[in-house]
Amino acid sequence: STPEREPLSPGKRRAALSNRRARKHRLLLRWTEHPCQLRRTRKLPLIFQKGNVLKKIILAGGGHGHINILKQLIKKPLHGFDITLVSDYKRQYYSGMLPGFLEGIYTEEEISFDIPALCQKAGVRFVHEKILEIDGSNKIVRTSSQELSYDYLSMNLGSRSREDFAIGANEIYVKPISNIVQFQDVLDKNLELRNHNKKSKESLSQKKDYANQPRKKMLIIGGGASGVELAIALHSRYRNLDIKIITKNKQLIPLFNDRSRRLIEKILLQKEIYFRVCEEVLEIKEQQVFTDKVSYPYDFVMISTGFVGCDILFSGFETTKENFVLVDENLCADSFSVAMGDMITLRHAPKTHKAGVFAIRQAPVLYHNLMKIIQEDSALQEYHPQKNYLQVINTGGKTAVFNKSSVAFAGKMAWRLKDYIDRKYMQE
């Protein structure tokens, strides 16, 4: 006969009940991280139930926020969901390193992410198609060939250049960045590379004799940081190229402090890169740029005059006149969707500039809040754009100008700081 057990005291009964509850909680946590290790579980946690079908998460776009999500999923897989990333680009370029790429400092692999490869490592399905519409009311993403339904949505689609002019083969808009990467091949075939680029690009230049050829003219329309960096990078890459910047603003890089602006203007003049301010471009045709003052002949044009929302129909979402999606302080576009980057306008800070320094801070908030939404957890993080932020502009020859608040300095130290920050970001 089995010996009778002594009755438990009330305190021991409470402790035993608490232990059983703790064990159930540990089992649930093990399921979310390693479902194959769970034993004797009668049913799935409620979060994963939808009949017998896995709930679907769509990552719309391949921006840096979604690159971060893919990296997090590689470290900590999310089981129990069908996750799809949809993008019409297979590589995501980091704009901060683009001038260094043009100059020949970085390779294409060093300044970009291979999206399909990251998806494969993260267990995410990659759909290489252009998104035409995102229907928030019916939870559908429509591409050029199919409709994809979702339960939860994250959007990181970037922006596009404001296309005010009709362009041809020798003119480009600077967004998407892949435009510049492809345009570099056109320039390499028509221009003389400087000595430090000849060895790697000798086959493209085909050892042409440029000595007796007239110098080519490059016009950059737009005097912001991207336009200035492009001008300096192109000057560093090509020998026989005259470069001019045209802007309708009263000054170059208006978001920089006065000292930084003076340093950059001095560098431009030293490199014989000339700029015209208070001059608005009205038309581009027949190899001429017509402004409200004069006209300029050109061989090549790069246009960086501002950005608008991507050319996607956002049904069921609130957008601005320029097609930026409105989000709250949690980066939520609705109860089941989050969004970040250049494609959004913050309701609580609508004048926030479209710049990478803000997107980098948004990326971890996007990931955190997406995970909380699919777990039906209300503990969402808030995002508030920083007021004082660092900007370092590449000025060629592994030099840069440091700009933050009222502080500014130029030289190799600024470039080494930028190089360290950029490489660290790409390798995280």
Structural write-up:
The chain contains ten helices and 27 strands. A six-stranded mixed β-sheet has the order 5-2-1-9-23-22, with helices on one face. The protein has a five-stranded parallel β-sheet with strand order 11-18-12-13-14, covered by helices on one side. Helix 2 packs parallel to helix 4 and helix 2 packs across helix 9.
What's this model, at a glance?
The protein is α/β, with parallel strands linked by helices and 428 residues long. The protein has helices at 10-33, 64-75, 98-103, 115-122, 178-190, 195-205, 225-237, 258-270, 356-374, 412-427; strands spanning 55-60, 81-87, 91-93, 112-114, 125-128, 131-135, 140-143, 147-149, 152-155, 159-161, 171-173, 216-221, 241-246, 274-276, 281-285, 288-291, 295-297, 300-303, 307-309, 313-315, 325-327, 332-334, 337-339, 344-346, 391-394, 400-404, 407-411.
List keywords for this structure.
5-stranded parallel β-sheet, 6-stranded mixed β-sheet, 428 residues, alpha/beta, 10 helices
